[in-house]
Design brief:
The chain has helices at about 20-45, 50-60. It is an all-alpha fold.
Length: about 80
Amino acid sequence: GCPSKTWPPYRSLVPMDLPNKNTRKRLSDSRFVMLKIESISRQNNTNPSLQQARQMLVGAMDILPIGDQTQRNYTRRKE
C-alpha cells in the first residue's frame, strides 16, 4: 500500500477503488510484478518477511525488463 496516501495494501485494492484510469493501469502493472515475485517465491519455497520482500523488489528493479518507453511510445517517469 501507500501509507502517505492512506491506501490499503495493494493486494486488497480493486480497480474501482482508484479514482481514474491512469491509477488503475498502474495498479495493473504493479499487480503483474507482484504476482511474478510471489511465483518465484513459491517456486523457491520461501516465505520472506515484509522487509525481505522489499529488498527483493529493490534488487529486482534493475533486472526487470521495463524500458524507458511504453508500448504506445510514451516516456516513463524516472522514480
